Amino acid sequence: MLENYKQPLILNGIKLDFTKETFIMGILNVTPDSFSDGGQFNSIEAAVAQAKKMVSDGAKIIDVGGESTRPGYTRISDEEEIARIVPIIEALVKEVPAIISVDTYKSHVARAAIEAGAHMINDIWGAKADPEMAKVAAELNVPIILMHNRQTAEYENFFHDFLEDIKESIKIAKAAGVPENHIMVDPGIGFVKNLVESMETMQRLEDLVALGYPVLLATSRKRMIGSILNLPVEERVEGTAATCAFGVQKGCHMMRVHDVLQVARTVKMMDALVGKFEVQGELAPRH
Q: Is 222 a catalytic residue?
């Protein structure tokens, strides 16, 4: 399926072979107001400790965000966002054996983060909010994740429009000079989508996978899960794991999550079940 990823991607010495493994991206919010973990990891020491824990739990990628994207979030200046994330990224690069991703839609922030040592960009506006974003990814030769987003939720035909929006982001990236094997996509579950639309997106993930780019699924603790299970944010681990298992079955390649240990175990089991790696050896003895 991954026509554009015939060779594994190697970042910071870590090989991302999407045909053999579903990779875990651990969420590291260094914000005071994120919906799930705002204010917990603002200091360098706390951020590094959390990143190390997530790597130990199974994450290969750490996604550092300096501005909340929860509903009703407060936009901050480029300078404030850079001040929040750059010292933490510099520390992570020195101390944590992981691929460091910067979660931003601002090209100046992305540039500062990459120059501080980050290895990839995760843009929740799919290179559409800032016309310089794709150019920065191309110039600095780093992968970029293009998430589905739009200004309004007015769709003529939801899923058709959704795919066209994603294709437009891909076109922008390619026009700026981003190579095919540096483009990844994210369906943007919960962004400008109601519950029914988010569910349809989940149920048709294979159509997004069919575009030929690695797909990042980011459902962690989201409102979709809370709505269906009628549970608060802190009790959505099982629902998150279920969506990630489903994502593996649909062909997704990366999972962006808060609860790394539980999801990493779930995803590894799913990778075995769908045949991403060969299972060898005898069954463990019964006890």
A: yes
